[in-house]
Predict the 3D structure of the following.
Amino acid sequence: MGTISQIQIEELERSHVHIPDRERVMDIIKQMKDDGPDKLQVVADFDRTLTKFTHRGSVCATCHNVLEESGLPKEYKEKAYAIRDKYFPIETDPNLSIEEKIPHMIEWWTQAHDLLMKYPLSKEMLYNMVANSSAKLRDGCTKFFDKLHASDVPLLIFSAGVGDIICEMIAQHSTMYDNMHVVSNDLDFDDNGKMIGFKGELIHVFNKNESAIHDSDYFTNLSHCTNVILMGDSLGDLQMANGAENVKAKLTIGFLNTRVKDSLELYKSKFDIVICEDESLDICNAIVNLIT
Ligand code: TMP
């Protein structure tokens, strides 16, 4: 079996890349390469998967943090950070099950969104908020988008962040191509551009299996794309492609950005490839480049 793959990806040999079953992973990549880009689709989380957790040692903003960093009163930032400091350790606690975490995540998103509603956010503020923020796409993210677009590979960005911030970040720092589709919590604005809430069902980190995308025609229209690369930084992200049809090969890539020592074994038991404390998309680019 080991010789079947005959695939060499130098990036997968790096010491921060963990592959519990290398033979299986190589066989999946080989199959994806043989099938080519026409059969491939990619489903990726946004915050801390397509974006960095840290940049040169400093923690970077998530979509929600972008709204907190500038533009709105300091009081909003302080209250939002207090909420985040309570719930982020629960989100990333390897000793709690997903079931135990879910009620806390619902509380976190509900409190964060209710708090935001109390402040005067408008559509026109988003450009500067993103431009002034510490949120950063991972190194190599533009190459990743360019390559998927050039090969006509569909990319679903499935995020519990804020859709408007995702689109603005990609517009400012890269390119939003027509092969890309964003599913997230979208802001709702009135006719004057004032934020009046969020549209649709709340998406938090652990309900990505329930989102409307699974019942929409998105995955049905891609039923010919039988090979799926899934990228995430949370165990909840593993559910993102549940609606995909006729899946023949699936490769899951997990970014472990924090509490590495505590969570590595758990991540290795869930993801095919685990990438620890990396600010780039080098590993994903190497795999995609081989397939497309
Ligand atoms: P993701 O699905 O794109 O990873 O986005 C969800 C991340 O957003 C998750 O890691 C927690 C983070 N988050 C904040 O940073 N602040 C907030 O107020 C909320 C609700 C979530």
Q: What stands out?
A: Residues 98-117 form the longest helix (20 residues). The first strand starts at residue 17 and ends at 18. The two ends are 24 Å apart (CA to CA).
